Amino acid sequence: MSIYKANDIRGIYGTELQDNDAYALGNAFVRYIKAKRIAVGRDNRVSSPALHDALVQGIVDAGADVLDIGEVDSPALYFATSYLETPGIMITASHNPAEYNGFYVCGSHATPLNEQTGLKALEAQTKKKAIKNTHKGAVYSTPLMRPYTKHVLSFLNHAEARPFTVVIDAGNGMGAQIATRVFKALRNVTVIPLYYESDGRFPHHGPDPSKIENLQQLGEKVLETEADFGIALDGDADRAGFVDENGEPIEGSLVGALLAQHVLSKHPKEKIVYSSTCSRVLPETIIRAKGVPLKDKVGHTFIKYRMRKEHALFGIENTGHYMYRDNDYADSGIITAVLMCQFYAAQQKTFSALVKPLKKYYKASEYNINIENARKYISLLHTKIRALKPQKINLQDGIAADFGTYWISIRASQTEPLMRLVVEGKNKDEVENQRRTFAEMIKKTIQC
């Protein structure tokens, strides 16, 4: 299986992903994007230094300079591509387990490359012979934490607000350094840090905050300290997850709905893009808050592309990616944390009370089945689902079918060999029953 995925490049280091892949990427990226300098950042995974050295060598051999911004979170790399007016490469596997690594690649101003906007063409370039320019590029150490912190703080409204306490779980990843800087400026917020020590092995829990088991320790800390809520940043801090004052995880769509209300209160009638697997309550909330909801396929780069096309204010994926027009349409866990703190401080309710009205529907846990080439089964499943006569069916991103009291989404994963099923509806028992029914349909289709 190729390490070039729909949104990025990633694989298990040492088997699927080698140092020579990093060299080939760096060399090919210079040829493909025709840039004279490239910003490079890396996360704190154990394999990142070796991949960094190989990537940088590939870039300089192709004749381009490297602006090395060091060990940073992915949003810092996105900021660098705007601040330095240059394309960039971030070495990270984001929320994947520690044995993984990979790369985000983008043009200047965080313009994303995905399978539809250049990633496949870049992969083709890596298969061509590398060039070694007689005039090699140079490497410049380019620390950017001060202007990057200033940029994040530009999202901060300094109006007086009620004081509260929040636990921030950096998960031993890259979010601690920017969180430490930024939250010094939020004088009404007392921060209780959790796992701020940098350790790319992620020894305490996995780096994916969209998985409930990775939020357990955050929830326990919130209860222990009687904090108002908790925030979890993923490995490279481009995602954020939340728990309420009872330590209960909040599904990403509902977090997006809270944030949508906040941003639309200042900018009504703006467009908000959301991924196809988000809860139905999200577009309903956007409309109620006088916004315009636009649905697109799953994948943060696809959301970013649509946002640019529509000049949308805000973008939402229920996995914890939240994207902002004023952040070059890029995602940021720390900006999300700041905005959520502002939203909460302006309310007179507990976090759970803010979320309660949004728990209008029941969503079953996502069902995943391992299968190579999952996309080829979509047409077979489409025929079977259409025979059930749903009220509506949409093929924008796999299969989305509306049966009135419940609705389903079946799609092939863009990053793993999986078929994914999501079922949501008005009644818990019906949703769970239909989850079993459609899971069995998927199994039988794959076995045929």
Structural summary, described in words:
This protein is α/β, with parallel strands linked by helices. It contains 14 helices and 22 strands. Strands 1-5-4-2-3-6 form a six-stranded mixed beta sheet, with helices on both faces. Strands 17, 18, 19, 20, 21 and 22 form a six-stranded antiparallel beta sheet that branches. A hairpin with a 6-residue loop joins strand 9 (229-233) and strand 10 (240-243). The mean pLDDT is 96.
Entry summary:
By secondary structure, the chain is of the alpha/beta class. Helix content is 35%, strand content 22%.
What structural category do the secondary elements indicate?
alpha/beta
For the report, how would you describe the main beta sheet? 6 strands, mixed
- Taking Cα atoms only, what radius of gyration do you get, to the nearest Å? 22 Å
Helical segment tally?
14
Multimeric state: single chain
Please state the average pLDDT score.
96
Molecular shape: globular
Q: What attributes characterize this protein structure?
A:
single chain, 448 residues, alpha/beta, six-stranded mixed β-sheet, six-stranded antiparallel β-sheet, 22% strand, globular
Fold blueprint:
Elements: E1 9-12, H1 19-33, E2 37-42, H2 48-61, E3 65-71, H3 74-83, E4 88-91, E5 100-106, H4 119-126, E6 139-141, H5 145-153, E7 164-169, H6 175-183, E8 189-194, H7 216-225, E9 229-233, E10 240-243, E11 249-250, H8 252-266, E12 271-275, H9 281-288, E13 292-296, H10 300-310, E14 314-316, E15 322-324, E16 330-331, H11 333-345, H12 351-355, E17 362-363, E18 367-370, H13 378-386, E19 392-394, E20 399-402, E21 406-412, E22 418-425, H14 428-447
Parallel strand pairs: 2-3, 2-4, 3-6, 7-8, 7-9, 12-13, 12-14
Antiparallel strand pairs: 1-5, 4-5, 9-10, 10-11, 14-15, 15-16, 17-22, 18-22, 19-20, 20-21, 21-22
